[in-house]
Amino acid sequence: MDVSLLTSQAKDAALRLAAAPTSLKNAALMHMAEALEANIPLILRENGRDLENARQNQMSEAMLDRLALSEARIRDMADGVRQVARLADPVGEVVGGERRPNGLNIRKVRVPFGVIAIIYEARPNVTADSAALCLKSGNAVILRGGKEAFRSNNAIAGILSAAVCEAGLPEACIQMVSDTSRETANALMRANGGIDLLIPRGGAGLIRACVENATVPVIQTGTGICHIYVDESADEAMAEDIVFNAKTSRPSVCNACECLLVHRGIAESFLPRMKRRLDEKQVELRCCPSSAAILGGARAATDADYDTEFLDYILAVKVVDSVEDAISHINRHGTGHSECIVTHSLDNARLFQLTVDAAAVYVNASTRFTDGGEFGLGAEIGISTQKMHARGPMGLRELTSCKYLIDGDGHVR
Amino acid sequence: MDVSLLTSQAKDAALRLAAAPTSLKNAALMHMAEALEANIPLILRENGRDLENARQNQMSEAMLDRLALSEARIRDMADGVRQVARLADPVGEVVGGERRPNGLNIRKVRVPFGVIAIIYEARPNVTADSAALCLKSGNAVILRGGKEAFRSNNAIAGILSAAVCEAGLPEACIQMVSDTSRETANALMRANGGIDLLIPRGGAGLIRACVENATVPVIQTGTGICHIYVDESADEAMAEDIVFNAKTSRPSVCNACECLLVHRGIAESFLPRMKRRLDEKQVELRCCPSSAAILGGARAATDADYDTEFLDYILAVKVVDSVEDAISHINRHGTGHSECIVTHSLDNARLFQLTVDAAAVYVNASTRFTDGGEFGLGAEIGISTQKMHARGPMGLRELTSCKYLIDGDGHVR
Q1: To the nearest whole angstrom, how far is the Cα of B166 from the nearest Cα of chain A?
Q2: Mean pLDDT per 10-residue section of chain B, whose length is 413 residues
Q3: What is the ipTM of this complex?
Q4: Which of B139, B163, B409, B412 qualifies as a FRET site for A79, CA 20 to 30 Å off?
Q5: CATH topology for A3-221+381-407?
Q6: Quick check: pTM over 0.95?
Q7: Chain-chain contact of B357 with A401 (C-beta, under 8 angstroms)
């Protein structure tokens, strides 16, 4: 697979797209949504072949469910694309500037990155979602999905790029890599000059591989070992609701709580009631010696449990002696995603928000709110857990860079 | 050299520093400046040993000049540190936020990165400069200088970290790597979790090595193959002044002009006068066939000349047929640094600023203005030529990340 051909086509398309007015990009998005709906039978047929293959390869039921499309899911995909059309266009926004003392006029404006590569895993809806967000933010996208969804992804990407072309933008605004080999993925990761940004969307293994191998700029998304610290001054009923929500409302997502820290002064009264509540959902607790003693007969936590993103009905539990202990545990074991303190102490709330090193630091609210929609971004391409460029939910703005436009009248230095 | 010890000390220091009030950081900076001036004899002695070594190793006069310190240069260094103390503190700035419909209060605030590593080359003033900028922006810094300046750098860093400690901040806010081996540099580049950002400051080779080998986030700085395009509608006298300034005012810096593009319609009249002006400084022209024909007997440009950052009194010259040709040449051969059009055409100025893909795009002004001071940032740690996180001159703000602080009242989702 010749990645350089893909990237040079993408570069050319990106130049056209960077100059495209919002109305043209929106028209292309509406075309894309319609084309998805008009081609439901084709997408379902190709998805059926992927599913057949997957069953032959003994894919688990949970994974099959992620892979499977239905008419309703394709219509949801199309609605997602229409929603992106309705979001404000970040390109061209003036984010700073001034007239300098020498009369030079400087403006700092948002511009597209250029070419964004997305490497992702099983779910084929990521294809439409990523293509829409990249197009709206003025970026050409090169998509590389997982082999399980190869036929579904190809069908969707083909439909979308044809629709973009009909709308009057280059077909190469949306390109799908035509194989799923590791070599091609590695070539994308090292296509400096051809790819301006690489975003891996998927599990910890994929993200690690990108961080490890990429020489192009990467934004790490995803992994969340999120903590809730219940302070001595916490309202126990509030803490119980927040922990229950953060652990059980959707355990498979990155903003779910994986570890409960409880101040020693409140542990005797709080832990038993919290356990009763979590028992409703059969949450398995993995406890430090102090919490195990209070709860009696709970499973002991191993060291590894405090560094594990369970993504399941499992919760690590630890009793700590102070807010400082809680913060230090979080800064050692967290992944920089979302962290919460439940407290009535203003001092502890301030200290926690000041010194916990994470994308989103909550006082008295569930970690589950870390989400582009909940933060008012409209849509998100992922949640950045790194500190460079974007941190937390990434919307359209985070898919842009900026440039300085400087206007003079013969100025020399 | 145990890099993990350095990074864990830096992490601890960074946590203290992130919470330090501006007044304390400024007091530390004033201490640092005073300590540099109080230790001029020590610094000069260590610098003398570096110079002696360098002479034995036949270092060129130009390089010796970059390495050499004097009392005046050390006082300049101290003044630079004092200037950083006077700049606004970016940490804590609220850059966004709202009350969501559900009553959740969200603030997005600037925070330090944490631990920044700087790998740099010969000039020892980079030590004080980088240390001051990182400290003010709340980051612990790990410095790794070149072997030529090893003793000078160690002396300066030792003085600075002692001064920081006296001011009441952790000594490990500023750490110098105690060897200059390639292994240690590589270990820094791959210290994920320990280093939040790596900034190489130096030549193209150093930057390439960091981009190639690093798994921690890197900001590419530096390389500038800057173009000036003289449009058919240009004011020839203005174009002459701008090109002369951009090429000759300081040819060794990254914002100097390396390639002149001239519209065919103006080339016959403009090129001879431009050559006469550049002859004042003995600038060597390397010409395309058309410009060589006009100028008669000029040296022919090779393909490589259009991809070379000369950093010298050398200028590549090419005649182009249109503004589109100029843009396409620039987007192919530029390094995304600074590009200029000289024109009276509004349409061509707009097209050029819209579609040239670079950090700074000028209309009728010299590329030499791309500089933190000229842009009003007060000081800069480098000029980013990548699109992620920071583009163009990087001041204190660009040394920060952000985090979301979310305040609820028992909110669950």
Answers
A1: 23
A2: 92 94 98 98 98 94 90 96 96 96 97 96 90 98 95 97 98 94 92 93 86 90 92 98 97 95 98 98 97 93 96 96 98 96 98 96 98 90 92 96 97 96
A3: 0.93
A4: B412
A5: Aldehyde Dehydrogenase; Chain A, domain 1 (3.40.605)
A6: no
A7: no
